[in-house]
Design a protein that fits this description.
The protein is α+β, with helices and mostly antiparallel strands. It is built from three helices and six strands. Strands 1-2-6-5-4-3 form a six-stranded antiparallel sheet, sandwiched between helices. The protein starts with a helix and ends with a strand.
Length: 129
Amino acid sequence: MSLLAFLGLARGFDLASLPAPAGAQPGASAAERQALHALAQDVSKGTLTVEGERLFKVGKGLPWVAVAKRIDNIARQRGAASVALPGADPGKKLAQAWRTRDGHGVLVAMVPSPAGGTVAYFAVRFTGK
């Protein structure tokens, strides 16, 4: 994490400072990336703009709730608040977002697969209040 991000002086959410999910491998296929972006658009209903991403392959032993809870703890420590996404469908659409006071934040999403799944950390800018 950069010094500016650590001091809270950088705009946006520093994705590089977020730890990868347990046992994850960086990267995703083009189809997985496209599916994650589609999920982000579906749950956000146009209320945010993606400004950056980190993608990971996770094993089937890592449940969505573990990924979301870990980022929830970190986001709250950094002063971000959980956001109710207009297209959310808990348990079916695996996505959750947190917003900082400056209107930026992070959206975490997962597309499951038989081998585990693909997780995205999206740096986002919220377009509404």
